[in-house]
Design goal:
The chain has 413 residues and is of the alpha+beta class. The protein has three domains: 2-139, PAS domain (Beta-Lactamase, 2-Layer Sandwich), CATH 3.30.450; 147-251, Helix Hairpins (Orthogonal Bundle), CATH 1.10.287; 258-402, Heat Shock Protein 90. The chain contains eight helices and twelve strands. The chain has helices spanning 2-52, 98-101, 141-221, 228-253, 265-282, 301-317, 349-352, 370-380; strands at 67-73, 79-82, 106-111, 117-126, 131-139, 262-264, 285-290, 296-298, 323-332, 335-342, 384-389, 395-402. Helix 6 packs antiparallel against helix 8. The chain starts with a helix and ends in an 11-residue tail after the last strand.
Length: 413
């Protein structure tokens, strides 16, 4: 994206620069054409008046701020008319090319004695009785204003481009500095979380290992004692606990990409309830399911089933003295909502803010990865998960997922 923006900025700057320079280069020829057109217009006016005024005195009526002066010179080089009356009848002091009297025209930039730059135009003036040469000198300040304006526009544009690039460079450096700062903060936060995770992992692994080590030492010293069978069973239990921790870690690190299978939520809820039923009966917990027929979402049924099992087991553990577990699903517009509701001990307000943190648990022997794994799986399915609870009033977990695009579910009581 940055390369595209940079390329766009370079192309835009090049286009604006080309426009400004070309406009400036065209300004001087345009100014010259304006002066020449103005000179031709004055020449026609002078010739028209001179034809009807043999004495040429009527030419004094031609007044314009564009004219510095003009004069009519005969072939002998004598002023027949000059805007300065004192020069009429005197030699012009300038050799007029015969080509002018024969119909040619010429123009050039000259410098007046006052130091002013001017434009001199020479052309023939045809009178009935003779042909004279016109020397018309025009002021150039109005025509040159076009050049000055083009030069000013070019300077302003280049100044704005320079300021724009300077500002862009400053913003780029600031953004890069901010990115580096954000990366550094993220790195430090990641290291802090990694340290916290390492400490929790060490704690979770150390306790089972200590038990395994102690039981093994007892068995080693007195291998034939009857109680060793019980110790061996405890070793197996602690080993299974470590295995569960490792499996949870692998599940948490697992990433299957974006799932696309159609998942029947009714079948998913029923399957989770069947798996939870033995433990629920042992704890005198009633499980109910409610889902519209044919309600579906898009995802991985195994991963979503794992979420429901984790939530269901948490709910069972929260009701050691019995209770009610409800697992429901419903359509919410283009989404579906799954709810797992229990009547257990509930979660305190302080703990609710941390329930999705890895390794946070309120259980004596929990790994603290269950709810964080649920959150990860739900987010991989473009969904959200929320917990509502209060101490002593039970817990409600709501999962919102995208509905299947071709779902035609219908509700039933």
């Amino acid at each position: 994206m940055r390369r595209i923006l940079l390329l766009g900025a370079v192309l835009l700057s090049a286009a604006l620069s080309w426009f400004a320079v070309s406009n400036y280069l065209r300004a001087r020829p345009i100014a010259e054409e304006n002066l020449r057109g103005l000179a031709l217009s004055f020449t026609a006016t002078i010739e028209n008046i001179a034809v009807h005024a043999p004495t040429l005195q009527s030419l004094s009526s031609i007044q314009s701020r564009d004219i510095a002066f003009f004069a009519l010179v005969d072939q002998q080089g004598v002023f027949r008319y000059h805007t300065n009356p004192d020069l009429i009848g005197t030699p012009s002091g300038t050799v007029i090319p015969q080509a002018i009297f024969q119909g040619a025209t010429s123009s050039e930039r000259i410098r007046l004695q006052t130091g002013e730059n001017a434009f001199e135009f020479r052309a023939p003036v045809y009178l009935p009785w003779e042909t004279l040469a016109l020397r018309l000198t025009l002021h150039t300040y109005r025509a040159d204003a076009v050049v000055r304006q083009a030069r000013l526009n070019m300077a302003v544009l280049f100044g704005l481009l320079a300021a724009g690039w300077a500002l862009a460079l400053a913003l780029y450096r600031l953004s890069r500095r901010e990115e580096r700062r954000a990366l550094e903060m993220a790195r430090r936060e990641s290291l802090a979380k990694l340290g916290e995770m390492g400490a929790m992992l060490a704690h979770e692994i150390r306790n089972p290992l200590a038990g395994i080590k102690g039981y093994a030492q007892v068995i080693e010293k007195k291998p034939v004692e009857e109680r060793n069978s019980r110790f061996a069973q405890r070793i197996v239990v602690e080993t299974q606990r470590l295995e569960a921790l490792v499996n949870n870690l692998l599940d948490y690190a697992r990433s299957d990409g974006h799932p696309t299978d159609a998942v029947d939520l009714g079948a998913l809820l029923c399957h989770a309830a069947e798996l939870l039923q033995p433990d629920a009966e042992a704890s005198r917990i009633a499980i109910t399911c409610d889902c519209p027929v044919g309600l579906r979402t898009t995802g991985d049924p195994d991963r979503l089933g794992q979420v429901l099992l984790n939530l269901g087991r948490n709910a069972l553990h929260a009701m050691p003295d019995g209770g009610q577990l409800e697992m429901t699903a419903e359509r919410l517009g283009k989404k579906v909502a799954i709810k797992v509701i229990d009547t257990g001990r509930g979660i305190s307000q302080a703990d609710q803010a941390r329930v999705f943190e890895p390794f946070f648990t309120t259980k004596a022997k929990g790994t603290g990865l269950g709810l964080s794994l649920c959150k990860k799986i739900v987010e991989e399915h473009d969904g959200t998960i929320e917990v509502q609870s209060a101490a002593g009033t039970g817990t409600s977990v709501t999962i919102t997922l995208p509905g299947h695009p071709h779902d035609k579910s219908r509700s039933y009581a």
